[in-house]
Design a protein that fits this description.
- By secondary structure, the chain is mainly α.
- The protein has 2 domains: 5-193 and 313-347, Rossmann fold, CATH 3.40.50; 217-309, Tyrosyl-Transfer RNA Synthetase, CATH 1.10.240.
- Helix content is 54%, strand content 6%.
- The chain has 16 helices and 5 strands.
- Helix 9 (157-174) links the parallel strand 4 (149-151) and strand 5.
- The longest helix has 29 residues, at 313-341.
- The chain is elongated and about 95 Å long.
- 39% of the residues are buried.
- It binds adenosine-5'-triphosphate and magnesium ion.
- Adenosine-5'-triphosphate (ATP) binds next to helix 1.
- Adenosine-5'-triphosphate binds next to helix 1.
């Protein structure tokens, strides 16, 4: 088997939404089932969530099980994937502390995702230090498991780049120890960053512009029917714009030719539907109804599986506990290697003690006990 290892995760700041699904979750399940990976770690990043939710620990605490339920509902299989809780692996925090020395403040300040998130959270006047350094903590999460592959959405690109820099720096200063990971972005461009139902740049738990994996069918329909389209497309006959039109962006991410055959046989595929919309003569309501059908069919089995798992919450915690235990062993072993490489291993390093004893003219070490 290959040595390929996956690490990825989500912040427990809310239930998972369909942006997570197309940006990362759907792919994770495929990768999990491909059998190509030696180890897969999926992390619930509660410590990271606390960096910008320090005053809402209850929110983070309650959402851990929600995220875990969403994982299982989507097909993450605890027999094949370790699901772990970040805060329960203190080795991750310890790694972060050492990596911090390899990164400058200016370098973190340049990170475009951190910049955007600072603005979003109105942190301009006072950025929590923990939040500011979360890209470094993310490097610990990735390297602790020697991940080769990190399947995530586009907003994570700067984090993976930061991680790669830390790995290169660490290895050049302390010797070859860490593994440089590769980002794995969604294959389809439409899935890189799914917009919010409000037409906002990104569907995000923190913005409340989401269709959740757990949303019931009425809620999905309501959100779809009230979605933004092309503001210039007032009458059915008007030519419409497809680019930047949220409904079409969702169709790009979710529809396929089978859905057309089943729910909208006037068109063979999305290109034909788009052409008609551009020409004029295709109303928003028809497009939205189609999107609604596509989403309903995609989300129904996920929601039903979720309901099954909801019946046994203690089992979910068993899964999390076991996944965390297994993961912690891996992280502890990496931390050990890191500290060895950095020579922070005083008690294990006989040569160090002997050398210093000799310098001070001690009797040969051990002689006293002989
Ligand atoms: P928060 O608002 O708390 O940051 P979030 O909705 O951004 O929450 P995260 O937990 O930060 O979700 O992201 C988890 C994963 O989902 C990451 O890999 C991220 O790239 C991906 N992701 C999040 N939102 C989207 C989206 N709208 N489209 C595609 N991928 C997304
Ligand atoms: Mg986010």
């Amino acid at each position: 088997m290959s040595e390929k290892v996956i690490l990825t995760g989500d912040r427990p700041t809310g239930r998972l939404h369909i942006g997570h699904y197309v940006g990362s979750l759907r792919r994770r399940v495929e990768l999990q089932n491909s059998g190509e990976y030696k180890n897969i770690f999926v992390m619930i990043a509660d410590a990271q969530a606390l960096t910008d939710n320090a005053h809402e620990p209850e929110k983070v605490r309650q959402n851990i099980v929600e995220v875990a339920l969403d994982y299982l509902a989507c097909g993450i299989d605890p027999e094949k994937t370790n699901i772990l809780i970040q805060s329960q692996i203190p080795e991750l925090t310890e790694l972060t502390f050492y990596y911090m020395n390899l990164v400058t403040v200016a370098r973190v300040q340049r990170n475009p995702t951190v910049k955007a998130e600072i603005q979003l959270r109105n942190f301009e006047v006072g950025i929590p230090v923990g939040f500011f350094t979360y890209p470094i903590s993310q490097a610990s999460d990735i390297t602790a498991f020697k991940a080769t592959t990190v399947p995530v959405g586009e907003d994570q690109e700067p984090m993976i780049e930061q991680t790669r820099e830390i790995v290169r720096k660490f290895n050049s200063v302390y010797g070859e120890t860490l593994v440089e990971p590769e980002i794995m972005l969604p294959e389809d461009e439409s899935c890189l960053r799914l917009p919010g139902t409000d037409g906002g740049a990104k569907m995000s738990k923190s913005l409340g512009n989401c269709i959740y994996l757990a949303s019931d069918s009425d809620e999905i329909k309501k959100k779809v029917m009230s979605m933004f389209t092309d503001p210039g497309h007032l009458k059915v006959e008007d030519p419409g714009k497809v680019e930047g039109n949220t409904v079409f962006q969702y169709l790009d991410a979710f529809s396929n030719d089978d859905f057309f055959a089943e729910y909208c046989p006037d068109y063979r595929n999305l290109d034909e539907m788009k052409d008609h919309y551009r020409r004029g003569g295709l109303g928003d309501v028809k497009v939205k109804k189609f999107l609604n059908n596509v989403l309903q069919e995609t989300l129904k089995p996920i929601r039903e599986r979720r309901h099954e798992f909801e019946k046994d919450i203690p089992y979910i915690y068993e899964v999390l506990k076991k996944g965390t235990e297994v993961s912690r062993e891996v992280a502890a072993s990496t931390l050990h290697e890191v500290k060895d490489a950095m020579k922070i291993n005083y008690f294990d390093d006989r040569a160090l003690i002997e050398e210093q004893a000799e310098r001070y003219g001690n009797n040969p070490v051990g002689a006293a006990n002989a």
